[in-house]
Amino acid sequence: MKKLIICALCAICGFTTANAQGKFGHVNTQEVMQAMPEFTKAQNEIKALQDQYEADLKSMQDELQKKGEAFDKEQANLPENIKQRRQQELQDMYQKIQQSFQDNQQALQKASQEKMQAIQTKILDAIKAVGQAGQYVYIMENNSLPYISTSLSTDVTAQVKAKLGLK
């Protein structure tokens, strides 16, 4: 009877240990992302938007500078009420430039987040598919851990790229 109980316990422990041992993988999502045409397209779109915002701000700054220089030249000959009005106009232009800069930064950040979110979602879906197909217990980000044993963990970066149709 004791032998039967010991055998049963050994079988249960062996079964539990076998199930606890699983496959582990790691992936370099940065490498995957940089290989995606969507990433390059998103970067180019964000850069174009940034260039547009910078050009608009430069134009506004140039206009402010011209008006400021013109005001400096003629302010001695202007009546006080006109002088005050022009100073207020210059101050309003300066504030408009500051507000435009802040608005542009927020819009650029929002556009970047939206474009990158779609790419990251696509990568995560591919990682999940590779994990399920390969029956991995975990797939961890390669660059976020201080150490990964490459002999105990499988690099699934190539599989994720293949799942996304990348080379």
Automatic annotation (TrEMBL):
Asked if the record carries the keyword GTP-binding, the reply is: no
Question: What's the family?
Answer: Belongs to the Skp family.
Q: Which organism is it from?
A: Xylanibacter ruminicola
Write the record's keywords in alphabetical order, separated by commas: Coiled coil, Signal
- What is any one GO biological process for this UniProt entry? protein stabilization
Output the Pfam families linked to this UniProt entry: OmpH
GO cellular-component terms in the record? cytosol
Residue spans making up a coiled coil are 43-114
List the Gene3D superfamilies.
Skp domain (3.30.910.20)
Give the range the annotation lists for the signal sequence.
Answer: 1-20
| Top-level taxon | Bacteria
For this entry, the protein name equals Periplasmic chaperone for outer membrane proteins Skp
Q: Name one GO molecular function term.
A: unfolded protein binding
